[in-house]
Design a protein that fits this description.
about 260 residues; SIR2/SIRT2 'Small Domain'; six-stranded parallel beta sheet; Rossmann fold; alpha/beta; 11 helices; binds 2'-O-acetyl adenosine-5-diphosphoribose
């Protein structure tokens, strides 16, 4: 492949948008959905990740989320999460759009995040719609109930549900105006996330992709890097593996007049 332009593009960029999927957390030990070891190989989404499944058997759905919460509680952010967090400190206007519900980007230090598919460390009351963080991996009961007596559900987006309006609006705003879009560890098969890099490209952004294998986005990406995100991203971005090793800030506010 020809030499990567990504670092130069990032150095000149005012607005940078990153889109991540399950692959960014794979090296932390969080299972992906597709691929040989993917969750959808051994579990049916229709039984576990739809509102109908929850209405039919809330306990079964909660058992699956309980298992994932416990598993993820024992995982740590990896070098890819850290590289993305460091990138945020280097660019004037940054947004991370993630399809992941694991919370690892925030734990790695990223601040400007849109969680398109929600977050499994939050619970939502079915009756009141109120949302609360529930960080303790042990739930009091399965399924858990709200103080008002109604069922709680994980505050995630299931198949057949609309994405949070605010999240999708912020995501569209970002991809329509960014100079560089970096896409990491997503199979780019689930909409609307999959179309975000295409929108960025159509609006003139430079699009770079990092994935173990080619995806439907590879054909439109300006550069595609095949391999493990935790190995490729720090090198590609020129970011030392220890985020603390970075200078306090290298961002140039002046290059981006408002
Ligand atoms: P997928 O499981 O569909 O895809 C994971 C992608 O990560 C694949 O393209 C892998 O090749 C790549 N990958 C795996 N390990 C990697 C590594 N170490 N470095 C780089 N790439 C790696 O996950 P998503 O694209 O996130 O939605 O799936 C999108 C949505 O489908 C999820 O948010 C979830 C799922 O069903 C809902 O549950 C609503």
């Amino acid at each position: 492949m020809k030499e990567s332009q990504l670092r130069g593009r990032l150095a000149d960029a005012c607005r940078v948008t990153v889109l991540t999927g399950a692959g960014v957390s794979a090296e932390s030990g969080v299972p992906t959905f597709r691929g040989p070891e993917g969750l959808w190989r051994s579990h049916r989404a229709e039984d576990l990740a739809t509102p109908e499944a929850f209405a039919r058997d809330p306990r079964l759905v909660w058992e699956w989320y309980d298992w994932r919460r416990r598993l993820i509680a024992g995982c740590r952010p990896n070098a890819a999460h850290a590289a993305i967090a460091s990138l945020e400190a280097r660019v004037p206007d940054f947004l991370l759009i993630t399809q992941n519900v694991d919370g690892l980007h925030r734990r790695a230090g990223t601040r400007r995040i849109v969680e398109l598919h929600g977050n499994l460390w939050r619970v939502r009351c079915l009756a009141e719609g109120s949302v609360e963080e529930y960080l303790d991996p042990s739930l009091p009961s399965l399924p858990p109930h709200c103080r008002c007596g109604a069922l709680l559900r994980p505050d995630v987006v299931w198949f057949g549900e609309a994405l949070p309006t605010d999240a999708i609006r912020q995501a569209y705003d970002a991809v329509e105006s960014c100079d560089v879009m970096l896409v990491v560890g997503t199979s780019a098969l689930v909409q609307p996330a999959a179309s975000l890099p295409r929108i960025a490209k159509a609006h003139g952004a430079y699009v770079a992709e990092v994935n173990l294998e080619p995806t439907p986005l590879s054909a439109i990406a300006d550069e595609s890097h095949l391999g493990r995100a935790g190995e490729i991203l720090p090198a590609l971005l020129g970011i030392p593996s220890a985020p603390d090793a970075l200078p306090a800030t290298t961002r140039s506010e002046t290059r981006c007049p408002r």
